[in-house]
Amino acid sequence: MAPSLSLQVDPDAATPPFEQIRVLVIEAVRSGALAPGDKLPTVRRLAEELGLAPNTVARSYRALEQDEVIETRGRLGSFVAATGDATHRQLQLAAVSYADRAKSLGVGSDEALAIVRAALGLPG
Asked: Which of 22, 44, 74, 87 is the most exposed place for a label (fewest CB within 10 A)?
């Protein structure tokens, strides 16, 4: 990982450790602490550093790979994907799909936004 990046997992948090790692890596990519092409530590090394089971870290890496935030290149290891933070791209695609569906159902933009606000738990 980039030298300026340090992951801290809170074992007492309600969020499982694998999810904490996933979110921390995504935040590091978004902030620029991790850049496209940066190599991540091996699963075993990160597990040792964090005092976690290797399967926990491997689960995080699999989720990050599925989210297209990282890519694994076999024996070479895992790297931040060339696209960087793909989560924004996925959200944009979901937003376009939602907007198209709302239009096809005859739902106006104000009502569609109100539904999204409610889903996010935001005040109307």
From this structure: 74
Name the residue among 8, 28, 115 with its Cα closest to residue 69. 28
Give the residue carrying structure tokens 């070479």. Answer: 76
Q: Are residues 29 and 65 part of one domain? A: yes
Task: Record the tokens describing residue 65, joined without a space.
Answer: 């790979």
Please report whether residue 26 resides in a domain: yes
> Taking the CA atoms of the chain, what radius of gyration do you get in angstroms?
18
110 and 64 both lie in a single domain: no
Please give the tally of structural domains in the chain: 2
**Which residues span the domain enclosing 106?**
86-120
Give me the percent of the chain exceeding a pLDDT of 70: 90
Task: State the pTM of this model.
Answer: 0.68
Q: Which residues of the chain have pLDDT under 50?
A: 1-4
